[in-house]
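INPUT
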Amino acid sequence: MATTKHTLVAIVQDKPGVLNRVVSLFRRRGFNIDSIAVGHSEVPHLSRVTIVVNGTTATVEQVRKQLDKLIDVVKVFDITAEKITGRELALVKVKASSTTRSEIIEIADIFRANIVDVASDSLTIEITGDEDKIESLLKLLRGFGIKEIARTGRVAMVRGNLGAMLPEEKATRSRARRQA
Amino acid sequence: MKKTGAQIVCESLIQEGVDVMFGFPGGYILPFYDTLPQYPQLRHILVRHEQCAAHAADGYARATGKVGVCVATSGPGATNLVTGIANAYLDSVPIVAFTGQAPRPFIGKDAFQEIDITGITLPITKHSYLATDTVTLAATIKEAFYIARTGRPGPVLIDLPRDVQMDQAEFIYPDRVDLPGYKIPTRGHPTQLKSAAKLINEAQRPLIIAGRGVIISGASEDLKKFAETAQIPVVTTLLGIGCFPEDHVLSYQMAGMHGAGYANKAIDNTDLLIAIGMRFDDRVTGKISGFAPNAKIIHIDLDPAEIGKNVRVDVPIVGDVKAVLQAMHKMIESRQHVDWIKQLDEWRQQHPLTDIREGAELLPQYIIRQLYEATGGKAIVVTGVGQHQMWTAQYYWFNEPNCFISSGGLGTMGFGMPAAMGAKVGRPDKVVWCIDGDGSLQMTIQEMATLVQDNIAIKIAVMNNGFLGMVRQWQELFYGKRYVATPLSCPDFVKVAEAYCIAGLRVTRREEVMPAIERAMAHDGPFLIDFMVEPEENVYPMVPPGASVAEFIEHPEKEVSTWPRRSTP
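OUTPUT
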């Protein structure tokens, strides 16, 4: 069966060791995490974990169910099939001499990226966007020599008025329909 | 008035209805132990190795349906619990394990006997806590017991730093838990119930395969009513044994690797498999692609993650087995499946399960059958892991739930004696037999001392064949009879028992079996019988690894006598 990238969002209790429980579960079930991003959510004491994982629909569904069983995981949903806004932030330190500096700045401008640090032989660029956009910028910058990359991994949200709860309810409903 | 953390633990245990715990003290759990004399209603049984504290709590929980409690100190005490916790996890047994821990300022500093036990047990507990504050300790314990016993039960660990045991706080036992992330499914989805009932009413060759979930849910009576109404034959998994009376006309005993030939043929031929409270372990499915190839599958389980994990399911029903069976009972029609049951009975004639060869040899099958006769099938029987375990599952027929106690998922050798100990403590009214192997017994043999100190009157039957028998059987069948590291020299078990002040007997001939069993049962206190059984006897039928369940192999010599089948009154 074909594997695809899935975006899972887990709302977890903000307690010590929670991230360890989540990550351990992936290791235990033999999944590779492409990226994981954690931060506070709109509700106090609840954190939001966005996990990008590669796998077949059936296996990702198994992981979703296993995650849902963790006591500290309040809810978890696979938003892959939804219309989502997915963003990642990257910091790229690229070699820059007096001759290449202006060319690099021009490229950064095209990508609407920011120059956040300038040194005698390098520039640091901050870019936000989906993975494709970041990859395209990196491709262009490689020619100049990349010294360092720091990426956050994807954070994602369903588009429109829907809150986090709704896609899950929708998914549950459509699952129930499928099963019926 | 304020209480210490240790007192809060004791008060909480009392609130949870705990009256006994199995444990072993040590430095960082001492404040708790020091408090125990203030609570005489809490009985503490001192084991000889912490692994056995966890197994005893496990046996206690399975025999009583209550939460078992075990206690150990930090470091090695805690790590010794690990096997027992893993065992309880894989068999969904509710236990709460308390471990001592270094005082908070020492945690993470590699202090003496300081180990990250919550980290170590992360993948083998349903949940775990490192108690960081005496003020929230009571709420933590409340949650731990709630999580352990509800939903799909499992082990919960609470790590107690010594200073948390010593600090003081008001004791207020909460009357509810606040666990927004903990969901327990109850009733099945109505649409699914309807689809399932439709399939059941239309099936020509339906079959129920029932597991431990039926026992946990207390749904044995409901299963019986359900099966009788629709006249559906029932097979069980190893841990499902006893959830449906094995002498019932609709019972076709255990299926799987060492299951009855007819039970496996039933799976191979059914057109509708109704799986209830079981999880399609590879020991029951054999080769997945060859499992129930002609059947639609209805899977009823409390744990949504079990649905579709190992086999494709046509109708998934997530819910409590008891509630689902009750709801579905109203939707199914009273039916007969005359041809199907006739077919199954023919297979039962052709592939009888409980044959015992005539002859002089002392066969373990014969002994277990005699144990069944002597106890009227009413004992709690606890086993170790290996050949003797499978023979017990095959030759002792269980008619009540919670009477066959065995390590299924983890297959833990050494489980027998400590678990039997826990079962007897929980059910002193019952006769408790521990059927063990000579290999399995030696892994936890030191618990004989516990039996004596706390006068726990279990009866031990050792199937002594001088081999690690199950491994030897695999070597014989699949490794060219190369018996590497399986011949086993054993001590004189009767003398060992005697050294522990336990009465014992050795049996070498068939005619001595029944008198020995009777003597053991008449004896007041623990008793050991060392049965010197046929060394190279194999467990049959057997589904070879990688084969489908229908491809079971039977005993090469054709059996002569048949154990007469009992009928339901």
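end of record. Chain B touches chain A at residues 118-119, 122-123, 126-127, 130, 147, 179-183, 189, 191-192, 195, 303-305, 307-309, 315-316 (CB under 8 Å).
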